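Blinded run. Sample ID left blank on purpose so nobody reads anything into the name before looking at the predicted structure. Input follows.
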Amino acid sequence: MSEKVALITGAAQRLGRAIALELAQNGCHCIVHYYRSKEAALETAQQIERFGKRAIVVQADLAVSEDIECMFARVRESFGRVDVLVNNAAIFQREELGEITETLWDQTLDINLKGAFFCSQAAAKFMIEQKSGCIINIASTGGIIPYKNHIPYSISKAGLIMLTKCLATACAPYIKVNAIAPSSIVFDEKASEQHTPVSCIPLKRLCTVDEVIGAAKFLVFSGHYITGQVICLDGGRTLGTK
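Blinded prediction complete.
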């Protein structure tokens, strides 16, 4: 097949939807994963189909490995292959140290890290058979510098960065595995600004959705000799300058 098949987790809305639409506009058929946002996922699929590409919508709880197995069984049934996996789905919840519960800890690590691993493991089976493939993990600057009020999230994203490096070595030479680590992304200007004041960023502005999807597009279609790397879209925030 000259056209790629891409699975994007958490593709119903926000960043996941934007990545799915960008890949579709560049020739990819898409599997639109969602957990609770069915209507939004269907809207994403409809937009993909307007670009002349196939789209299927698949529900799965990424904290449950059996759900992931069923999702990839659906992929095999519908397309018979997967060329691109974007591990985008994540939980991001603000809690101070004393407010973190076992439930929140488990949910965050299960979805943000364990789910990404088992999705990658399942996708790798296809990609090794095909002798080609691309996995992109949506990490965060929170995995590089500590977010004191988002401890489970920061730990999960730090783990995702190391998972990227481990998978890059385990899946070579056929599969390239990289991560994109944005700082706060502009969705709601006030909310983003509250989380990351631009005074902390050398370039004095927040990351945009277009910059993230541009990095994803590059890794899928152009970054043929790049694997195990983290593209940090932070405007210099992780440099530690004042």
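Unblinding after everyone has recorded impressions. The beta strands are 5-8, 29-34, 55-59, 84-87, 133-138, 175-182, 230-233.
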